[in-house]
């Protein structure tokens, strides 16, 4: 009883944190938690002897970070910006679709919010929200521009469908857009090779670093692609 009073009911060690996260994030490890701490995503208290002590708010903060990584594929630096804004009492306006947070990360509130962190759309919902017709959706599927899992589509499929609907208004049909899929595969191959040294390692921290580096490289690839296209457009005699 004396030990419980000294630690307090909300103080957890790293093993207890892993136990709380294991159902939703079964691949989570102690090294991944330490990696997120190294990146400044969490800041657990330390005992005089240097042992980490986690509060329930640290656990929910981890849930938020891991959910955005897993379901929205966001870089850690972007997630950190969200967290810092929330810590300042702000409500970030540019959160990805389907993600909302309270001004302060409170365990019960955030747990409720994270239930809606990812949307899975039926075909009817995808068509309604993107404006795609049945033939358009069939074309996107047949050309491999979108896919589904058990008949459900994710936010990326919605983004692709919306873009393709608008491009159709400029005379570009899905059959014209297949080079984008091929280019995406080639860019992914470049990213995959760039992080191969990290992904070949067995520890979770290396895999976490590989995922983070892959996101950063992909953002640079997209910036390069945009700059090259805009450069060509700037040379048009219009």
TrEMBL record:
The keyword Membrane does not apply. SMART domains: HTH_MERR (SM00422). The keyword Chaperone does not apply. InterPro entries: DNA-bd_dom_put_sf (IPR009061), MerR-type_HTH_dom (IPR000551), MerR_fam (IPR047057). Keywords: Coiled coil, DNA-binding. PROSITE patterns: HTH_MERR_2 (PS50937). Residues 33-85 form the HTH merR-type domain. GO terms for molecular function: DNA binding. It comes from Arthrobacter ginsengisoli. Residues 104-131 form a coiled coil. It holds the Pfam family MerR_1. This is DNA-binding transcriptional MerR regulator. It comes from the Bacteria.
